[in-house]
């Protein structure tokens, strides 16, 4: 028989699949003996059953009754009791943290009777009625689906009539009136009175949390974070402890280290006389955690001891929620905290130095995505700037964009290609679409643990919160600050490190970490303007060097010229995995290729090829010089034929207009002949047509030109004392016979060049595996190829039947929305489909040729998750854009120390 409900004392932190992250960590704190209000967890299995059957399993209700009585015994209070009523919190808790995405209900158990009992028990009438109005508001929105604005309007009106600015300044009489109006709203909106039976409140709240797993905002968050839809959420039911019992009570969120910078110390937010949701909602600006030491030294001391114990136990930065009820500390939640990219690297190396983790574990604690964030530009400190406000730097980075005040505006502007700064008084989970679309987030309220800060850090978005000088008027769509009025569409710049807000555009420069990557430690530390930046550079250096020591995968770069190759080499590339030679035929040379393709005779074609040869030799000399001593894979010309020819429609229009005007002469006849020639080879689907090896076999001498140029460049550089290491790669192979023909031609040309220069020349000749048939027949192709390079862009295209030029905008958004895809397969490798073909290609190729070198080129070579797949598949190297070389180096090392997690989300 399935057990759906577990007391906190029955679990531990390793049961996140069953108990969710929050429930597992609550159980762990109970094991550690920390002061946790008693409670129980309803498992993810129960949620999945609910989602499948459309109802909560009846066994859950029975088990909840049993566990609820255990809680009553432990706390000494009873749900619905007329003298000492037990109140409960009902919270979600999925395996993976989804801050603010699902529902919470506090103060469950209050009704028209128990509110008086609570007032008497607590000796505080205002507290009881404040708790009751919170329950109705939260329950109404979450469980009964009442528009939350209706409650907010009532609350705001009463504050205005009372002449107070904050909720805490309302009296018990004010709150009684508010409760009465809230209850009327529930009756008007639902047709039923607010439920008065405490146990019914519990059951409805549990079901609401299960239901919130599939809210639009939760689904959007899961799609973005690639969290599986079928995991479900657990529900944690816990005895309420009260932070709103006067000035000796309060609630807060703290971190064992600063999640923004990584520094050790006391970091967090505290609100006296408040409940937990007040802190993260940002509706009141919080106090610094250090202020608690002055207000309640004993509770502060106990909290600091608990923080140290949890960090030591988890061996990581911990994010902790706590409540103080009349001087008594209660621990409500802990988890390994989200952090900025810079903090991740600093904390990892700090913990190594403190002997809490090893360097391998430090490598596990950071990601390529985080390193990529540190490579982004930052504001030029010397640039002219107009500072208009300063808030808290909640998530580092430099963001410049047009102001947007709501989701619709942010999404629309981003779709137009405009960078956006989302500005809100404070954000809520409903603002997630706008936050995703924005380059940065700016709020007037909130602290480092507010919704805006937590979500932005998780996304790696620049964020400034709590900029109190800003008066944000969402209705008028304007910001007032001092003498300035900023309207929607105006430009703001925000610095997520310093918290500064600037009017207008601000020039950006390379980050110090990018300078370190490109120019070395000495150059980077020379431009670092503070010790924190120097520490960050040193932390990145330590982790990246360890990754280089641990990784098995070599990291190459995609580069088409010497400049790009040098840039890649400076960033740690160990060779070139893909030189796209077609890029060398753009501009003035396009007409020469046109002559080759449309030549009327062998003589004309050979003459055109001869004109191209010297330039091609210089191209390869340039590239091989930059990569001297390192393998340089040069792909023979690949793209569809139409890319080298005039547009057929333009030619047809030009001829038609000439005919209409009665024009004649050599130019008109040339255009007419060109139209006929282009029309004769026009293709409906050129990506599956005359390209790659097919083009090389159809047009004599085209591949030969490039092969000869490679060999001649090699000879010239050898004579200059260099060590060029070119590799020739044949694209779009589908049959071994194609490669046999090209290889024979190549070997003949190489032999001719070798004989002419009296040198021995050996150039490896391999091919791309980018068609499903090539992967499936790799055992045959390996008879001829010296190496394989998987072209996963085209392999994805041909496996899925997707046109990569069209699908991203045509229907991917709908596929992502419906969960058909969790991410574009052109961004992260489809491990189940395309990845299976890669594995087949590797295995079959090496079955024929055990020492066969295999690699991958294309953007998947720089994608962190894909790199882990390639490591596990046994590839020898990945190749990516020069910018992503450091990311690939890091992830190559992480792939060694991490277990395979591909497909877990």
Automatic annotation (TrEMBL):
Residues 544-890 form the PEP-utilising enzyme C-terminal domain. It is an enzyme of class 2 (transferase). Residues 62-285, 298-343 form the Pyruvate phosphate dikinase AMP/ATP-binding domain. Gene3D superfamilies: 1.20.80.30, ATP-grasp fold, A domain, ATP-grasp fold, B domain, Phosphoenolpyruvate-binding domains, Phosphohistidine domain, Pyruvate Phosphate Dikinase, domain 2. Substrate binds at residues 580, 635, 770, 791-794. Keywords: ATP-binding, Kinase, Magnesium, Metal-binding, Nucleotide-binding, Pyruvate, Transferase. It comes from the Bacteria. Its EC number is 2.7.9.1. GO terms for molecular function: ATP binding; kinase activity; metal ion binding; pyruvate, phosphate dikinase activity. Mg(2+) binds at residues 770, 794. NCBIfam families: PRK05878.1, pyru_phos_dikin. Belongs to the PEP-utilizing enzyme family. This is Pyruvate, phosphate dikinase. It comes from Janibacter limosus.
């Amino acid at each position: 028989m399935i057990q759906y409900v577990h007391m906190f004392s029955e679990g531990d932190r390793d049961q996140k699949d069953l108990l969710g992250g929050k429930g597992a960590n609550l159980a762990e704190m109970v094991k550690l003996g920390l002061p946790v209000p008693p409670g129980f967890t309803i498992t993810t299995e129960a949620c999945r059953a609910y989602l499948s059957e459309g109802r909560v399993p009846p066994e859950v209700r029975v088990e909840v009754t049993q566990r609820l009585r255990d809680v009553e015994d432990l706390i000494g209070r009873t749900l619905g009791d007329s003298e000492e009523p037990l109140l409960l919190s009902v919270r979600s808790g999925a395996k993976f943290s989804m801050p603010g995405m699902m529902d919470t209900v506090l103060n469950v158990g209050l009704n028209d009777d128990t509110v008086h009992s609570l007032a008497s028990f607590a000796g505080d009438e205002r507290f009881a009625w404040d708790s009751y109005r919170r329950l109705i508001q939260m329950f109404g929105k979450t469980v009964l689906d009442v528009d939350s604005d209706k409650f907010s309007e009532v609350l705001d009106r009463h504050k205005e009539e009372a002449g107070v600015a904050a909720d805490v300044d309302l009296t018990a009489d004010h709150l009684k009136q508010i409760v009465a109006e809230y209850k009327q709203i529930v009756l008007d909106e639902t047709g039923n009175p607010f439920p008065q039976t405490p146990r019914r409140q519990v059951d409805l709240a549990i079901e609401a949390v299960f239901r919130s797993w599939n809210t639009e905002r939760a689904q959007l968050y899961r799609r973005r974070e690639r969290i599986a839809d079928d995991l479900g959420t657990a529900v944690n039911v816990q005895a309420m402890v009260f932070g709103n019992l006067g000035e000796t009570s309060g609630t807060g969120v703290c971190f064992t280290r600063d999640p923004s910078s990584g520094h050790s110390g006391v970091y967090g937010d505290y609100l006296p006389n408040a409940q937990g949701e007040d802190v993260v909602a940002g509706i009141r600006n919080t106090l610094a955690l250090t202020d608690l030491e002055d207000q309640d030294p004993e509770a502060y001391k106990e909290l600091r001891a608990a923080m140290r114990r949890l960090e030591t136990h988890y061996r990581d930065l911990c994010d902790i929620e706590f409540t103080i009820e009349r001087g008594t500390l209660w621990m409500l939640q802990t988890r390994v905290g989200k952090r900025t990219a810079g903090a991740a690297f600093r904390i990892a190396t700090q913990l190594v130095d403190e002997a809490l983790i090893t360097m391998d574990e430090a490598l596990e604690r950071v990601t390529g995505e985080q390193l990529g964030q540190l490579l982004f530009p930052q504001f030029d400190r010397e640039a002219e700037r107009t500072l208009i406000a300063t808030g808290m730097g909640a998530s580092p980075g430099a963001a410049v964009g047009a102001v947007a005040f709501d989701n619709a505006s942010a999404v629309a502007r981003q779709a137009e290609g405009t960078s956006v700064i989302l500005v809100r008084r404070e954000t809520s989970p409903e603002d997630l679409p706008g936050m995703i679309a924005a380059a940065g987030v700016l709020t007037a309220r909130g602290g480092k643990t507010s919704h805006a800060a937590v979500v932005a850090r998780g996304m790696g978005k620049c964020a400034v919160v709590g900029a109190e000088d800003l008066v944000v008027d969402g209705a008028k769509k304007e910001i007032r600050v001092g003498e300035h009025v900023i309207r929607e569409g105006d430009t703001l710049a925000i610095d997520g490190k310093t918290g500064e807000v600037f009017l207008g555009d601000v020039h950006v420069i390379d980050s110090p970490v990018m300078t370190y990557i490109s120019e070395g430690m000495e150059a980077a530390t020379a431009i670092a303007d503070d010790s924190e930046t120097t520490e960050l550079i040193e932390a990145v250096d330590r982790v990246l060097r360890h990754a280089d020591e641990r990784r098995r995968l070599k990291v190459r770069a995609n580069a088409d010229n010497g400049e790009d190759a040098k840039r890649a080499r400076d960033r740690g590339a160990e060779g070139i995995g893909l030189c796209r030679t077609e890029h060398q035929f753009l501009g003035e040379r396009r007409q020469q290729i046109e002559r080759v393709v449309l030549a009327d005779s062998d003589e004309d074609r050979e003459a055109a090829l001869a004109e191209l040869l010297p330039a091609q030799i210089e191209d390869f000399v340039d590239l091989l010089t930059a990569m001297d001593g390192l393998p340089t894979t040069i792909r023979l010309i690949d793209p569809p034929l139409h890319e080298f020819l005039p547009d057929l429609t333009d030619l047809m229009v030009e001829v038609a207009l000439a005919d209409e005007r009665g024009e004649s002469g050599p130019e008109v006849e040339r255009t007419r002949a060109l139209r006929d020639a282009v029309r004769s080879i026009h293709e409906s689907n050129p990506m599956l047509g005359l390209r790659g090896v097919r083009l090389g076999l159809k047009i004599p001498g085209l591949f030969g030109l490039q092969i000869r140029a490679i060999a001649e460049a090699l000879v010239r550089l050898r004579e200059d004392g260099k060590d060029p290491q070119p590799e020739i790669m044949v694209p779009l192979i589908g049959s071994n016979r194609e490669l046999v023909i090209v290889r024979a031609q190549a070997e003949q040309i190489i032999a001719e060049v070798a004989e002419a220069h009296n040198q021995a020349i050996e150039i490896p000749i391999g091919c791309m595996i980018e068609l499903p048939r090539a992967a499936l027949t790799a055992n045959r192709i390996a008879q001829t190829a010296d190496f394989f390079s998987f072209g996963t862009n085209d392999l994805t295209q041909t496996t899925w039947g997707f046109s990569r030029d069209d699908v991203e905008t045509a229907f991917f958004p709908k596929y992502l929305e419906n969960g058909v895809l969790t991410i574009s397969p052109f961004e992260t490798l489809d491990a189940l489909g395309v990845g299976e073909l890669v594995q087949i290609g590797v295995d079959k190729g090496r079955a024929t040729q055990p020492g066969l070198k295999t690699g991958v080129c294309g953007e998947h070579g720089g994608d962190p998750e894909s790199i882990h797949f390639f490591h596990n598949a046994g590839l020898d190297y990945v190749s990516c854009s020069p910018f992503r070389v450091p990311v690939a180096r890091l992830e190559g090392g992480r792939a060694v120390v991490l277990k395979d997690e591909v497909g877990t989300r």
